[in-house]
């Protein structure tokens, strides 16, 4: 039976090294399953219930409670280890890193979610706003209606217990209602600018350095968000000291009439659980300037040629951002901002590296420095 078990290692990382904290056996395939984590959790529960030697597998609750003190603490003054980083499979990660490094920066692309990934979840003890959440339409009744929707749907969005099909329908509902209220209640581009200037939104520490590094290496960054493109671009303009040629935003884009009033949204709605349906179509035109400079690309397929993907997200649905890319290597990095106890196992199953505690981008910057040590 033991030849069928896999070993999961959850470790803390510090600059320049890894240290294993916990080692345990888990059911075969669980750590690398392609099932969504919601299913995977159910699948795990089923295994635990029906497997004859289930007691040999520590249940998730045991795994999480034994990890919690290690993962949650502040920086250990003796070891100086960063708190709150989990790596599912260090050996696999090292293999992926070596493959990406040897193919060079010309084959790398970064696909990043915006809200809760590039931005902080908490800002000075206050919940950071999202591109949707910061918006003041200039109509308090409609602002309150959208806030009421947030209070109803956001707990459903982050719940690990709702089956994926059901949750997808709920998210469609939320986005359609919110977009409808934005049109119905009136919105102008001036209100967007004012809202961003008054917002509580901030990039994670280290994001600017990450963008600068990737720009220097000629690595394109696709910001792929279920938020609002016009607002995200305004956040970039107002909250960053300069623009970055290598960054493009793919998100729900507004259509304004000649008086500057919102009248519609372009194309199909992107919500947190259908990013996979939009992935390649959205990415291709965005990346067409970032291929190999020595090759012409008549069929606009450069995005497919950058076959090494660094994916950053804070939601399980963000993994769909690379669907259709046919990548060779993907390092998926997840920021688990909330519901840590209930979602940690799901995130560790789904992402290669998981950052907890609303941490900085420092670890990702260190990673890309290792992946792309030289100019292309
Ligand atoms: P993201 O894809 O950049 O993370 O953006 C999606 C986030 O936006 C998601 O986590 C939920 C959030 N959101 C709001 O805060 N208010 C809203 O009205 C809607 C529809 C989404
Ligand atoms: Mg997000």
UniProtKB/TrEMBL annotation:
<protein>
    <recommendedName>
        <fullName>5'-nucleotidase</fullName>
        <ecNumber>3.1.3.5</ecNumber>
    </recommendedName>
</protein>
<dbReference type="GO" id="GO:0008253">
    <property type="term" value="F:5'-nucleotidase activity"/>
</dbReference>
<dbReference type="Pfam" id="PF05822">
    <property type="entry name" value="UMPH-1"/>
</dbReference>
<keyword id="KW-0479">Metal-binding</keyword>
<dbReference type="GO" id="GO:0005737">
    <property type="term" value="C:cytoplasm"/>
</dbReference>
<dbReference type="GO" id="GO:0000166">
    <property type="term" value="F:nucleotide binding"/>
</dbReference>
<keyword id="KW-0547">Nucleotide-binding</keyword>
<keyword id="KW-0460">Magnesium</keyword>
<dbReference type="GO" id="GO:0000287">
    <property type="term" value="F:magnesium ion binding"/>
</dbReference>
<keyword id="KW-0378">Hydrolase</keyword>
<dbReference type="InterPro" id="IPR006434">
    <property type="entry name" value="Pyrimidine_nucleotidase_eu"/>
</dbReference>
<comment type="similarity">
    <text>Belongs to the pyrimidine 5'-nucleotidase family.</text>
</comment>
């Amino acid at each position: 039976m033991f030849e069928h078990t896999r070993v999961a290692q959850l470790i803390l990382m510090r600059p320049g090294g890894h240290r294993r904290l916990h080692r345990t056996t888990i059911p075969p395939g669980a750590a690398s399953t392609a099932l969504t984590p919601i299913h995977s959790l159910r699948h795990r529960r089923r295994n635990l219930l029906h497997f004859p030697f289930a007691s040999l597998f520590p249940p998730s609750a045991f795994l999480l409670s034994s990890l919690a003190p290690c993962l949650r603490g502040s920086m250990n003054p003796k070891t100086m280890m960063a708190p709150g980083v989990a790596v599912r499979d260090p050996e696999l990660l090292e293999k992926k890193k070596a493959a990406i490094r040897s193919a060079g920066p010309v084959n790398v692309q970064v696909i990043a979610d915006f809200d809760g990934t590039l931005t902080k979840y908490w800002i000075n003890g206050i919940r950071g706003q999202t591109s949707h959440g910061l918006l003041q339409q200039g109509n308090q009744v409609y602002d309150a209606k959208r806030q009421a929707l947030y209070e109803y749907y956001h707990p459903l969005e982050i719940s690990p217990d709702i089956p994926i099909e059901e949750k997808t329908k709920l998210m469609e509902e939320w986005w359609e209602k919110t977009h409808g209220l934005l049109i119905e209640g009136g919105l102008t581009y001036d209100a967007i600018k004012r809202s961003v200037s008054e917002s509580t939104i901030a990039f994670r520490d280290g994001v600017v350095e990450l963008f600068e590094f990737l720009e220097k290496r000629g690595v394109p960054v696709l910001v792929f968000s279920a938020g609002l493109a016009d607002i995200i671009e305004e956040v970039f303009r107002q909250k960053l000291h300069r623009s970055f040629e290598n960054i493009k935003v793919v998100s729900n884009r507004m259509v304004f009439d000649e008086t500057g009033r919102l009248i519609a949204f372009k194309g199909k709605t992107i919500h947190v659980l259908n990013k996979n349906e939009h992935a390649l179509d959205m990415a291709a035109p965005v990346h067409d300037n970032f291929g190999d400079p020595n090759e012409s690309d008549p069929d606009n397929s450069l995005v497919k040629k950058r076959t090494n993907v660094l994916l950053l997200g804070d939601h399980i649905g963000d993994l769909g951002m690379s669907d259709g890319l046919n990548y060779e290597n993907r390092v998926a990095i997840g920021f688990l901002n909330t519901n840590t106890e209930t979602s940690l196992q799901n995130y560790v199953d789904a992402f290669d590296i998981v950052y907890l505690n609303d941490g900085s981008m420092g670890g990702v910057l260190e990673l890309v420095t290792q992946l792309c040590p030289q100019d292309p």
